[in-house]
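debug: dumping io for the single-chain case to check the tokenizer round-trip. Nothing else runs in this session.
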Amino acid sequence: MLYNLLFPLADVFTPFNLFRYLTFRTGGAVLTALVISFVFFPRLIAWLKSKQGEGQPIRADGPETHLKKKGTPTMGGLMILIAMCLSTLLWMDLTNAYTWIVLMVTVAYGLIGFGDDYLKLTKRNTKGLSGRKRLGAEVAIALAATLACMLVAEPALSNGLAIPFVKDFVLNLGWFFLGVGAFVIVGAANAVNLTDGLDGLAIVPTMIAAGCFGLIAYLTGNAIFANYLQIHHVPGAGELTVFCGALIGAGLGFLWFNAPPAMVFMGDTGSLSLGGALGTIAVVTKHEIVLAIIGGLFVLETVSVIVQVASFKLTGKRVFRMAPLHHHFEKKGWAEPTVVIRFWIIASILALIGLSTLKLR
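debug: decoded output
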């Protein structure tokens, strides 16, 4: 909004020229989201405590150490959403279609997560929305978002899947790309959701991924950098750097209150919306496969659940002591901070590997 209001006045007041730079507006988005979080998060936490009573239901079959978390409020993702969306709207170019698409997916998935959290609280169990209804809503939103991306993108890239390490090649999938894009968005949303099980575990890898995709969006949106790196140029994608900055700022604000012992949980409200946002950004920037590398920790957590369920149904035996993977290590005796920090390290390493695909062509 500030870009649309103030940049046209740069001839009158030269400092307004700063708003043309994505780097300046991204920095502004980070700080704005952070300030909003610090100012309003304590009030939101107090309000959530007053409304939720016993807080988020704790799994009876989970690690014993989690029982002491009883009474901690959930739905902290509400503040992430508010800070992230307000900051993005303030600093983005309001004419950029890609940013609106990502914002719409983020809010829509946040609403699904909110409904899920609300049912868990009111029913006092850990089930929430039925899997069929939740997945159906997620797929419908993801299909609409992918179709919108295809309509906005350049014809040469609209239905193509870029392959890492290969330059000047796009696998043309035709209308099948609609399913691929939806799979990436839904998969990313649920992968982050599965990872959100320990204090601070999901938000830091999410911020790491957002930082990586902020850089990717900036580079793919710039014709000169894209040509130098021999990656596909996506006009307009650079504006998503502002959104990624807002996500990082909101994430830092949330982490301040979610650091062990957590004062509030993210809940599905936050995890689904953040995962959906990352998936949509990957579709826009034509880095769908790279998301699986940068977000490799989320992939590992998801695979652990799939393997556990498949093994138990087929053989009656469990591969892990408990799934998702972070609970397995808790059951093995690792302290929660140990699991969280080591998983952060893994996420950082995978992010660096993912970023290396930008140059290894």
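debug: round-trip ok. The chain is about 65% helix and 0% strand.
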